[in-house]
Amino acid sequence: MSHRAAPNALTPTPDEYEHLQAVQTSLAQQVRERDGFMPFDDWMAHALYAPGQGYYAVGTSKLGAQVGTGDFTTAPEMTPLFGQALAGQVAQILAGSQSDEILEFGAGTGALAAALIPALRLLGIEPRYRILEVSADLRLRQQNKLEALQADILWLDALPEAFEGCVLANEVLDAMPVTLFRWDEDGQLNEVGVTLAQPDEIRFAPDLPPSPFQFTERAADGHLIDSISRRMPPLPAYRSEVNFQAESWVRQMGSWLRKGAALLIDYGFPQHEYYHPQRMEGTLMCHFRHHAHAHPLVLAGLQDITAHVDFTAMAQAAQDGGLEVLGYTSQARFLMNAGLTELLTQIDPSDTAAYSRMIGPVQRLLSEAEMGELFKVMAIGRGISAPLMGFLRGDRRARLEHV
Length: 403
Ligand SMILES: C[S@@+](CC[C@H](N)C(=O)[O-])C[C@H]1O[C@@H](n2cnc3c(N)ncnc32)[C@H](O)[C@@H]1O
Description:
CATH topology: Rossmann fold
Organism: Mesopusillimonas faecipullorum
Distance between the termini: 50 Å
Bound molecules: S-adenosylmethionine
Radius of gyration: 21 Å
InterPro entries: NDUFAF7, NDUFAF7_sf, SAM-dependent_MTases_sf
Structural class: alpha/beta
GO molecular function: methyltransferase activity
Pfam families: Methyltransf_28 (PF02636)
Largest sheet: 8 strands, mixed
Shape: globular
Protein name: SAM-dependent methyltransferase
Number of strands: 16
Oligomer: single chain
CATH class: Alpha Beta
Number of helices: 14
Order of helices and strands: HEHHHEHEHEEEEEHEHEHEEEEHEHHHHE
């Protein structure tokens, strides 16, 4: 179907190329079966999660702290201090819900659990740890990594009917498939989908392999028009996304989280920033070998695809599900409130090499220019009366507008 570019740092290996061809063939078949319009959320769901094909469904390395290992890194992968700092807040939620149960969604390589469980033990808590992971490959990696802890850990296959305790989701909402839309020049709203490329492939960027797909549009249905019109006014040629799946996941939590709180940690903003007039192309980002770009139609099944989180929509969904929004702040503020600075004072500064190894990732977590400000932490829950320690200073719930 496509010629191959001269090799560069982003050229797939022969095995990856074979996988790419298989995923593209399967997606092309689906585009044809849908008369040339595949909604982008279905496209993204297949590219990330289709059994045997999706990025998260197959055994590639994905998460890795350094260039050369995996495609991207996350806070728990960068330093155990992230999980250790979370421990105090998790302990407070467990106490408030009179439970010792934790449910982590999308646990990646298991790095958060590996840091959090020993830190909770130091606080005298032996948690019952539950993980719900949609990727069979990552589930296996989690099992291997966490075995040595000899902790009470169970992997769930479905949402619980009822749960009391602490729910954790670090960078999970951003990995849920989004619906794409675009206001056209006449103020009409269109849904953006995927079709076969004309003539037969498109090069989105010089260093990326070409794609046999391109974007296409059709008039949005009433549901999409209603929900987008409530979030932003029409802006000519403005394309963005809306995460209905994440909203319904949060809303549904109201039916099974009987007592306790969920900490949702992710990159994103309140709605007025999300749909800011200057953010004309939305927030879609892709990651392949630590290279970030904005072209989701290339490297299907080989790259991560994410969108930032609209935290106003998440707060609204939580309230629609009967949950309370207990706190919302930046990751930097949350980690400092939760005691990260005190943890740093426990590291021996005389061992300068070890100290700088520890301090570098912490600076990235806290720095406004890196993860400290872009990442946010939101707590939602029910039946927790005491103010949560992670939000005591710098709570920004008021910025979420209609909450
Ligand atoms: C970007 S990774 C983050 C991994 C890990 N939390 C970390 O911070 O290192 C996204 C994770 O979310 C998982 N995931 C996506 N949708 C999910 C869902 N609906 N339920 C549970 N896990 C999900 C993916 O399989 C993957 O493990």
